[in-house]
Amino acid sequence: MTPDLPARSAQAPIIGPGHTSATVTDQISAVVLMKTPRWWFFAFGVSFLLVMMLMYALAYLFTKGVGIFGVNVPVGWGWDITNFVWWIGIGHAGTLISAILLLLRQDWRNSINRFAEAMTLFAVACAGIYPLIHLGRPWVFYWLFPYPNSMGIWPQFRSPLVWDVFAVSTYATISMLFWFVGLIPDLATLRDRTTNKMGRIVYGILAMGWRGSAKHWHNYEAAYLMLAGLATPLVVSVHSVVSFDFASGIIPGWHTTIFPPYFVAGAIYSGFAMVLTLAIPLRALFKLEDFITDRHLQNMAKVMLATGLIVAYGYAMEIFMAWYSGNRFEEFMVKNRMLGPYMFQYWSLIACNILIPQLLWLKKVRSSAPILFVIAIVVNVGMWLERYVIIVTSLHRDFLPSSWGMYSGTVWDKVTFLGTIGLFLSLMFLFIRFLPVISIFEMRAILPEAKKLADEAEEEGA
Amino acid sequence: MSDEGRKTREVREIRERLSGARGPAFWRSLEELAGTPGFQEILHEEFPRHASEWAEGFDRRRFLQLSGATLALAGLTACTRQPQERIVPYVKQPEEIVPGRPLFYATAATLGGYAMALLVESHEGRPTKIEGNPLHPASLGATDAFAQASILGLYDPDRSQVLTELGTIQTWEAFSKALTTRLAALAALKGDGLRILTETVTSPTLADQLRTLLAKYPKARWHQWESAGRDNVRAGAKAAFGRYVETVYDFSAADVVVSLDADFVMHGPGRTRYARDFAARRKVRGKPRDLCRLYMIESAPTNTGTLADHRLGLTAGEIPAFALALAAEVGVTGVSRPTGLPPRMAALVSAAGAELKAKRGAGIVIPSEFAPPEVHVLAHAMNEVLGNVAPTPGPDQPEGRGTTQHSEPLEVEPIDQLASLKELTSDMNAGRVDTLLILGGNPVYTAPADLDLSKAFLKVPLRAHLSFEDDETSAYCQWHVPASHELETWSDARAFDGSATIIQPLIEPLYGGKSAHEVLSLMLDDPPRTAYDVVRAFWVKPLGDATGREPGTFETKWRRSLHDGIVQIALPKEGMNTPNSLGSNSLGSWVYRNPLFSILGHAAPLAISPDAVTRAATSIAATGIPATSVDGFELIFRPDPTIHDGRFANNGWLQELPKPLSKLTWDNAALLAPAAAARLGVVNGDVVEIAANGRSLRAPVWIQPAHPDNAVTLHLGYGRRRTGRVGSGAGFDANALRTSAALWSVRGATLTKTGETHPLATTQEHFSMEGRHLVRVGTLEEYRREPRFAQEMEETPPRDLNFFPGHPYEGYAWGLSIDLSSCTGCGACVLACAAENNAPVVGKDQVMRGREMHWIRIDRYYAGELDDPRTHHQPVMCMQCEQAPCEVVCPVGATNHSSEGLNDMVYNRCVGTRYCSNNCPYKVRRFNFLKYSDDTTPVLKLLHNPDVTVRSRGVMEKCTYCVQRINETRIVAERESRKIRDGEIVTACQQACPTEAIVFGDINDPRSHVSRLKAEATNYGLLEQLNTRPRTTYLAKIVDPNPALGAAGLEEAGHEPAPHGEATQSEAPRGEGEGS
Question: Of B768, B774, B889, which has the smallest distance from its Cβ to A159's Cβ?
Fold first, then answer.
């Protein structure tokens, strides 16, 4: 992007040159403390309208019944579960970046982990709506939880949907804690810097008495690491469990053992795509190029490329197994995906998830923020299509041709989906406005090393 | 605080006053209490604005507030809430009624005048379910779909409920006065100008009344018109024998059947019994004798054609030529084989002819009701020359053994109905009709278009119409009298074999309807009698001891007749066929011994006039074989398979019952052969303009495999202009193209693509089995070579392959067996299930979305060439898998395995994830996507089976093997300290099935019927390779093609992948197309 890219661009700086602790703090906290920019009102307003639309759709849904969606027999799940899996998948990057990269001491993560975590949280919130509203009788959703009741009835533990309940709620809880714990030092910074009385009170409460003493820091590090350790297996477990919803069914196209790893890879893939989708406009809007540098974008592009290839392997294996198993139902399923009435969706998914992302092999592509942004959007679309194809094409033509049918989402499916996007964006805009999008203290922590690296680069350049 | 104190004090006061009161005084003191100032005060404080809610009046702001709140509340109330119900105990216990225990009454329903004997279940005085009458030879316990649905017709809230004169509500007395005044005037003219129009009548009582009327008014005339009537049958018999006769066939005695377009398992008065007898001769068990071979020559594809060993699709115009060739082949004198017979026809003529000759006396040639009279003449001649007609019984000939029997007509007044209607029309146009009384029927809608009946109506000074609904004909009559349903009134009718049934009411008329008997009684009797009096008075003579043949009084015989559902006149015991003694008595012997004939005259010896045969042959030969590539199409009219001639248009069950072959619901369509559709460049749902006889009609196309090319079939009964909410706007009116010159087919129609489309709702979009072994078919020869051919088509996993510990089944283990050789695809089981299990009607829109709620469906597959495929039916309901994929995935345990092997659905526990449905390989689960059950229309509540939960929105449901019937029987058996007997539990589908294709029972009992069927070599489980271990299994379909013709069309049926046929029909328009 920049013409005078440093020679060791693979090791491009993870923080812009010339930053000190003070400048880092100033710049990041300014995003929160400055006067609300006009565009924010506009952007939040639009998102909030979408939330209102969601509320309307849900009210209508609860009044009329789940029949307002396009689901039918044989396709009992459609946009609802597609969106659920899609949002849950997006929610993966946050924990991965925060926890696994933290444990692996990948310092470059420090500038993106905060909003990646926020993104996770909001995505999981959006995802959590779907399993509830797709129920025929949503008002008894709590029957899926093992709550004590006078009739002594428990959930049916053989069902993957029950495992889902545990997996997703655990994931949401840990992600929430992790995010909040990570925020505490920065909340204290904001408390100290804000001139607004209300802000001081709210940030003050949220900072939980943080004063930055050595003891605080000691406890904080221990807690943060421990949470990271807890969160790490969740990255693998959540989407594995979600994939069991399908893998433990007997429907051709669902019933396959490769689903857990392939779903996890897919989730990370879509998660990183979403992080890029958000990070690129964010850093442009708030002039944060110094903190979210090209190096970050490149690293994320590489993760996408790697997970994308795993996903591609998953697709290839499905096709291979359909042939190798000699199972005529599997064979038909693959043929039907490729050449049946949903072939447009299938080939779009292949294009979005496998073909187009191969551009990421090129360094030029990886280092161009606009192109990366476009590819990230393409991958987001592709991952949505992947879930749609898995759910709809497997169900719509299964064993008995007599019960084959077609599926299409209704206007309510679409409105609800747009509504959850609105909810996600609204939460995101609130977050951007009221909390530091980049971890201030963690950025400060990497300054010395960044400086060293920068110096080295300068020497070499000279 | 002081307020609080005062309140407590006052409440205490009230308590004291109450506690001081004792016994009866308690109530009085409550009343007094309400009046105490203290109470009033409290009331006012609790609801301070209660008294002055509207005192201030409205301003704009307040109005908006309230309307907003109303809206919100309206939204809240729309959430599903079980309606509040009150239980009222009997003050006086009616005789025989034990709450919760149903009573069964024998009665009958008529279609086309002929009776279908019924046994109606009644819960506390409300009929809820219709079964066939096992004692009656026409039913043997089975029914058809129409009979099953007639219970909904009874409660139909759209039935007309008031007597009207020119649209204003009038009383029965007013109508009575108007009619009698008119009659008094007409009496002087001996009834000149009085016309009565009825449908086909077999009711002896009605006949008696009408004859009395005609005797009283000699110049009055009685006309009959039935749109889907049997004029051709009557005309054929009259031409052949010189008089009207009724012909009855005994399929149980037949070894070969040649059907000339006759859909004898679905149409005609004997359909249910014929289906039973025919299927009984097609069941393959152990070491079978040869099957009754069926050659089907058909125009519009029929269900009977799907059962055929050899099927030949011809246009309706080619059928007479085939009949002629066959007649020549079997040696009918005076007939010569037409020249230029196409090889396809010639081959079948030779083969069928040879076999008919070889099996002399055991063959049937059965002509279609829709075939021209000449075909009937030839068929009669063929049966005669082949020795199929039973000799007339006499002193030396006690039993008329044979396959075909002729008897006195059962209709009280067989006439050419079309001629009768034409005469009426011309008389009306000529002003010769003064008073027209229409007793049932809807002639304005059903009459051929060229008669322009409605215009003629307007020239009649007084017109009165007795009918169920305020229909097209009512609109053209000054007086409309609501008719009573057959379950609401007394009457009688005769079945195809001559036996009479007294129709007895199950319930008082719901909407004050009147029967034809009552209307006629108005004109005959002073004072008018009730239907009961009329019917009972009629039967006094026949049932009385006039002949001295039968001991006993009238009363006992009357009661016996009512109880058995069949009129008791010297009923020979050995003549009765019971369901379990099938075949031991031929149907024919029963017909001949039926002494009812003695009332109306005994059959005299008949002889076919050779002239008639020659005339028929000459007439057919003169027409010749129509050129195959004529200009334009042949139009074929047929009554609709589910709503008949339109009389069932407002019946939601029948509207939503998929048509047996096209699987269409809620619409009729122009049925076209695939090749014809390809030529026209149309696909399903494309609207074409059909022009014939100078008239035209727009109709959507449906591509129908097996349909003859160059022809288009239109089903009657749709496009009703004036009917209830259900039938309005469904389909198009084929009567618009039907003329009196061509009632059933006409040539030279043109089809033009209009470019418009019309959405059609089908329940099955794909017709190919995709090479999967779903319906397994083999020939009899194959079966003899390798009886286990069906089981060898797929591998069944070993029994111990099980992830979870298996279920022990120690008591009963319920199972079901379905014989695919027997299933005719008629759909009676589908409606029987819906009626028994309170399945809702969802409407066309929901069917198009794939949300039909039938618990049992009949899958229909085609195999072989699209133009001439084999058609297979496969009823599919919940398989009650022993290793059910649905059970393990339900997160709340709403679907559970019972100790007897049923997959129980716990509706109360279901949260509606639909995971079970997704994971069901048979896709038999049904989900209440919206609130489908109607619990707001009060009268429809009466319809529900009280033993089955009415499901609300958001829960999954499916076949339960009629668990309520299992439990009911279990209670009875336990009370009697015994095991449930085999055959004691009958599922609703099994009970309705005319062909006994479905058998239910305990598979833990090796001697049970179902166990023995499951031990058959042809037994196989659907998708058994998935290790689901279905409890419902199938017996492979066995056909027995003539070796001389080769087993055409069989190889691909079960053994090889069938062609996909994607291009032509596999995707019907359904839903909105593709999503994302």
Answer: B889
